[in-house]
Amino acid sequence: MNIIELLTINQSELGTKIKEIINDYRDFYSIIFIDNGGIIVTPKKCEKYPLICSHLDTINDQRKPKETPKISDINIQGDYLSLTNNSPCSCLGGGDDRCGVYIALELIKARLPYAFGFFYDEEIGGVGSKYMLQYLTDNITAFIGLDRRGADQAAIYGYDNSELMALFERRGYFKAKGSFTDASNLAGMYSKGVACINLSVGYYNEHTPKETINTTAMNRTLTILKDMVDELTSKPFLIENFMIYNEFYQSKLYYYGDDDDLYYYGNGDLYNYGDDDSEALEEWYIEGYNKAMEQGYEISKDELYEENLKGIYSSEAWYISYLAGFKDAIDDMENLKYPKKALA
């Protein structure tokens, strides 16, 4: 399928199309289909491979009324795509995540020894990827998301590996901080401690009617991934700086210090941040956002009123930042259609 075709079908239709396409590649791949979770594709006779992650829903699927772009809604100007001014759609759909799906399908057509995850309902808290965790193998070397704006960003989420980042930096990518995606969702839950990274796939102004796609940038990432097979399948890229706030999730994070410094104990190490460290506070904001998105709307809304989200840390700068991110994610999900019942 070309990118225009991908933009003009909804999540359910896209899931059906992907099943039809990859059935033609069963000689090379093993395939798992899970209703409401997604599709997992793994290469046969391969000991190690990265999981290339993309998702099938767009905010057009989640908002009411649902409006999927028609061909007549799409402006094509060379390698730039955009919505027409009179289109009723909430977005074009490249940034959530048809550019990523296009790249993944092209890699499958090339029979590259990568694994692929096509997930449902990323836009409402990573529901599909969370549900599909149980179907992942132990062979994964890294989680590589295809769900980042721009042409040259490699986003990180706290589940990082410097060697993995360096592979992409050498190819012209720049490190950026991400908020949430299926790749980070899985990295946080996968028991093998494998790192994640999320790559630009050529979209801009995502989640708005002003969204555009640069197909040249999209194809750049496709070409780079085709050239990285040996490096990405050579060994696992393990998390080096596992999130210092991980213990907070089990209410095991402790506060020490005076008015000038904040100290956090987690995963066996002691950390220090000054109150005015804006970068550290930004990381706490991102982590709050990530956590709420990972859990989904219903769980996060309930948790907002529990003691660990209004307790002894309520006046601390790090906690205020964490809570701001947490609340913003709830607001984002509330503005979309959220699931009434979370998947186990």
Short description:
The protein has two domains: 3-232, Zn peptidases (Aminopeptidase); 246-334, no CATH class. The chain has twelve helices and 15 strands. It has helices at 3-7, 11-22, 59-62, 94-109, 127-132, 162-169, 182-189, 215-226, 229-232, 278-295, 297-303, 317-334, and strands spanning 29-34, 38-43, 49-55, 74-77, 80-83, 115-119, 140-148, 153-156, 174-177, 196-200, 203-204, 212-214, 254-256, 261-266, 269-274.
Tally of helical segments? 12
- Counted up, domains total 2
Largest sheet: 8 strands, mixed
Question: Which class of the largest domain in CATH terms?
Answer: Alpha Beta
Assign a percent range to the helix content.
25-40%
Shape: globular
SSE layout and pairings?
Elements: H1 3-7, H2 11-22, E1 29-34, E2 38-43, E3 49-55, H3 59-62, E4 74-77, E5 80-83, H4 94-109, E6 115-119, H5 127-132, E7 140-148, E8 153-156, H6 162-169, E9 174-177, H7 182-189, E10 196-200, E11 203-204, E12 212-214, H8 215-226, H9 229-232, E13 254-256, E14 261-266, E15 269-274, H10 278-295, H11 297-303, H12 317-334
Parallel strand pairs: 3-6, 3-7, 7-10, 8-9
Antiparallel strand pairs: 1-2, 2-6, 4-5, 5-12, 8-10, 11-12, 13-14, 14-15
Helix pairs in contact: 4-8, 10-11, 10-12
